[in-house]
Specification:
This protein is an alpha+beta fold. The chain has 15 helices and 17 strands. InterPro entries: Amidase, Amidase_dom, AS_sf, Carboxybiuret_hydro_AtzE.
Length: 471
Amino acid sequence: MNATITPTGPAFASAEALAAQVRSGERSATSIACETLERIAAQDPQLNCFTAVTAERALAEAAAVDAAFARGESLPPLAGVPYAVKNLYDVAGLATLAGGQVNAADPPATQDALLVRRLRQAGGVLVGALNMDEHAYGFTTENSHYGSTRNPHDRTRVAGGSSGGSAAAVAAGLVPLTLGSDTNGSVRVPASLCGVFGLKPTYGRLPRSGTYPFVHSLDHLGLFAGSTRDLALAYDLMQGGDPADVACAQRPAEPVSTALQWPAGLRIGILGGWFHAQADAAARQALDLAAAALGASDEVEFRGAETARTAAFLITAAEGGALHRERLRSRYAEYEPHSRDRLVAGSLIPVEWVVQAQRLRRQCHQEAMALFSRYDLLLAPATPFAATPLGAATVDLHGQQVPPRAGLGLLTQPLSCIGLPVCTAPLWPALAGGLPLGVQLIAAPWREDLCLMGSAALEARGLAGTRLPQA
């Protein structure tokens, strides 16, 4: 195996391992919480992942786990595992910022978002809220109000977005598990740039109850971890519908964490066309490495990719603009320059354009379903290039100057537009010069198991994995 692409292993104990240590009595949840809070205090000032640290809550939740252990109770799967959430998730006692200064004076949330409650029931210990692009409208987490989140592998570069704080916190080893959201690529882009595993489930799979919306018809909730196994474990614990989210499918939970073995005979296609043209040499190298490891050789084309991305742009602008229209009229100056003019423009898009975009979205979905009649899994790069320098206005992509705040989603938007489940696995191609680049493992709706199996196979073959940031 080429040493230049081999991960050095996770920078921290996995969530599964930490919980096992707590259940066995080897470590206390309180000691893990204290170590985590100390690590955040020491490292986060240089990274800016957190917008709030919930130290008092974390110690209380850890103490409750330890008390249950002392009483001889059976502990839940994530007992004592520290985690953090993108600051668009409601956290009781905190104002839900969604990255925006305009939300800072809102009343604190009275209860946790549903997925936060589920992780707490599973024994998780919440240590804080994480930085993001304002109102999730961006791919770099360069936030005018709360500062830029820096990439742990090169602090002069972006972490990706809009869930940049979530990905960077895992990549830096601050916590083993975080929650984010993905409208147009906001889990997959930062997972790729920070070198961690990310899962965007099928649209409607995880309920969004208690989270700040961006684009109702495109918003997904997702998660980040240092291994496929941790992704699958946490995903299983969060499954289950909720009537409060009308877009959430009321499907029974379908556990995946017990079935990550790579099965023989899976049909794998490599997405070419748009996904090849919009990727640089390093991103193509990452894809080639993944394809070779999984025995994939068939190149296929999703001809509707550019159309799906265009539809996503229109739907995003229109729904996002409509959501913020009234406050933009009265509090325009409190919105950041990166997004406020785009929101205003989006609020003026004619309804006929949105209707047509939704029609095209359905057509693209039908084309993708035809591909899945021939293939079980599709592969594509997650981002067109590696992490760009902070403040960069453009980056060269095959002679074209591409703005990172929009261009980083070139390869993710077509897939979230049609709601497909995707797992991003981090690779370390030699051409990326020591930076990570992710590969998307894409399956038909409700087949998160196949995405995670593919990711686990890349991990087992020593190709995908987290890497300790260089000091």
